[in-house]
Amino acid sequence: MRIGDLPHVLEVQAQAYGEVMLESEATLASRLTLSPSTCWVAVDAQAPEHEACVAGYLFTHPWHLAAPPPLDTVLHTLPEAPDCWYVHDMALAPRTRGAGVADRLYAAALTAAQALGLSASALVAVQRSQGFWARFGYAAVLDVSPQIAAKLAGYGNGAVFMTRTL
């Protein structure tokens, strides 16, 4: 992903989430700026000329397993000693769902994360997406700390903290 992709990423985000769960361009740019090797876009070469060619995106970055960042928060630095690969957000343009785009995005980012030497991954599943993330090996953490529970509240009803071993 490149900074120039962000306007198209924001279009995909709006298509995927509607009015809820939208994050600012500054929030997403901060993740891309801090960890460009772990943020990806899928390009749809078959997209009609009037539509963006970004078919989906995936923002990830090194982080601390026990401290997911709050939703829609600009990050200024990454931790000095990260212990996990944090999967911040994946969204697909509706026209590409079911075409394997999510699998390819995740595989590319996973390879980059493994090159960082991290042994765990974490994410916050929103909008009943636990089953989707379970396909990639994530499991819900049922007994979260009060700090994680407080952050989950900011992600909306039904947000679930999930982890996996890399």
From TrEMBL:
SUPFAM superfamilies, per database record: Acyl-CoA N-acyltransferases (Nat) (SSF55729)
Signal peptide stretch: none
Native species: Pandoraea vervacti
InterPro entries in the record: Acyl_CoA_acyltransferase, GNAT_dom
One protein family per Pfam: Acetyltransf_1
Domain called N-acetyltransferase: residue spans: 1-166
PROSITE patterns named among the record's database cross-references: GNAT (PS51186)
Gene3D superfamilies: 3.40.630.30
Transmembrane segments: none
Superkingdom as given in the UniProt entry: Bacteria
Name under which the protein is recorded: N-acetyltransferase domain-containing protein
